[in-house]
Amino acid sequence: MALLLEGGTVITQDAQRRALRGSVRVEGARIVAVGDVRRERGDEVLDCTGKLVLPGFVNLHTHSPMTLLRGYGDDLLLEDWLQRRIWPAEAKLTAELTRAGADLALLEMLLSGTTSFADMYFFTDSIAQASLAAGMRCWAGFPLLDFGTPECPPEQMVPRCEDFVKRWLGHPLVTPVVAPHATYTCGPGTLQQAARISRQHNVLLHTHCSETRGEVYDVQAKHGARPVEQLARNGCLTERTLLAHCGWLTKEEVRSIARAGAGVAHCPVSNLKLATGGTMPLPELLAAGTRVGLGTDGAASNNTLDVVETMKLTALLHKHHRWDPTAIPAQVALDLATRGGADALGRSDLGRLEPGAQADIVVLDAQAARMQPMHDPVSQLVYAARGTDVETVLVQGKVVVRDRIPLTLDAPRVLQRARDAAHRLVS
Ligand SMILES: [Zn+2]
User: How much distance in Å is there from the Cα of 208 to the middle of ligand 1?
Assistant: First the structure.
């Protein structure tokens, strides 16, 4: 049976970036037609009159279970925040608590139009299972750190990671990822093992890179190379790499990331909140041809998982930073949040509405006072919309949110379990 999203303003995000009055026809998991599409007998019809129809957002860097630590230790120095709040709480994590946090994150992300996310956190199987149950696409990063994780001691990490990768490989919704945490928490041995797993199983390698100036100095002092070079030396800078943050890059590092063909996740809200100081050289990365998308980072350093908010912040941050209101236009911000993130995940069938693409679609209410009049739908979407304007969400052709009601998650139960889990974590 086909589903027809009829009569909206369709922001296609196709190669021509067309925004048109029309419809989108979905058959099974895929989009089969966009534009002037006629209703056929037996079609299920979703009336999109007065609404924006656009591709689902991609959250390219997050730690979904950290929703449990949202608002726990805000306004602290990074070292205090990590050492006095985050790490002691994380030491108490279990698979069950992780699941409660992941479910809360999934609920928040789906309700604000995110259909794909790249994650990195302990008890990765819980996150993968949560994502599967919610019907959302997850790039589930199994973290590697020299000193181990709450889930496994150092000597078990690499085999457990490889086991995780093998188990989820080829799944339509959950894609396994190897996630060495960063060059300041992973020595050459761990990085080389991560590189091997990525190469051998052809999976993404997701890592934090050059988030703070202190990190860059520390890695240089310890290893004689800045983080980008340290990753490259150990086989972790390839076309399968996804680098989060990149706030402190030199021009040469921008070139070497582009040469390697690595993807980059820009997390401006987290960077601003943690006051990391460095602003990602986004225009230079884009000019060099690098695939860039947007991440929220974990809810403990944002504090939402709202990609709509991140789009606006991205455009504003770079305009302000460059003293140039043309630096990052609305269309570029929307590209980053949709097709850019999808491209960084190696998925040219996501992040755009065109025949053959996966039917990951958002219907956004455009009737709020702040959304009118509609001179330019892309501008309105980036500068005026809110995540709460999202009404209906499809992933893989299945409706997972309808009229702001989540269909795959029991919202009251998710909220109660998350509150209980958060209480257990910090008490
Ligand atoms: Zn992060």
Answer: 6
Task: Specify the domain boundaries for CATH 3.20.20.140 within the chain.
Answer: 57-344
181 CA from centroid of ligand 1 (Å): 8
pLDDT exceeds cutoff 90 at 82: no
Domain 2-55+354-406 falls in which CATH fold? Answer: Urease, subunit C; domain 1 (2.30.40)
Q: How confident is the model at residue 202 (pLDDT cuts 50, 70, 90)?
A: very high
Closest by CA position to 130, among listed 95, 157, 90: 95
Q: How many Å lie between the centroid of ligand 1 and the Cα of residue 295?
A: 9
Weakest mean pLDDT among 56-70, 77-91, 263-277, 377-391? 77-91
* pTM, rounded to two decimals: 0.98
Separation of CA 410 and ligand 1 centre (Å) = 27
120 C-alpha vs ligand 1 centroid, how far in Å?
Answer: 8
Cβ pair 341, 58 in contact under 8 A: yes
CA–CA gap between residue 143 and residue 149 (Å, rounded): 8
CA of 50 to the centre of ligand 1 (A): 37
The pLDDT value recorded for residue 77 is 83
Domain 57-344: which CATH class? alpha beta
Q: Name the residue among 61, 9, 63 with its Cα closest to residue 35.
A: 9
Would you state the structure tokens that stand for residue 382, as one six-digit string?
């980036």
393 beta partners: 362, 401
Ligand 1 centroid to Cα of residue 4, in Å, is: 38
Judged against a pLDDT cut of 90, whether residue 79 lies above it is answered with no
Cross-strand partners of 31: 26
How many other CB atoms are there within 10 angstroms of residue 214's CB atom?
A: 14
What's the gap in Å between 320 CA and the centre of ligand 1? 24
**Mean pLDDT calculated for residue range 231-242:** 98
Closest by CA to 312, choosing from 234, 401, 384, 413, is 384
What are 5-28's pLDDT values in tens digits? Answer: 999 999 999 999 999 999 999 999
Domain with CATH 2.30.40.10 in the chain: 2-55+354-406
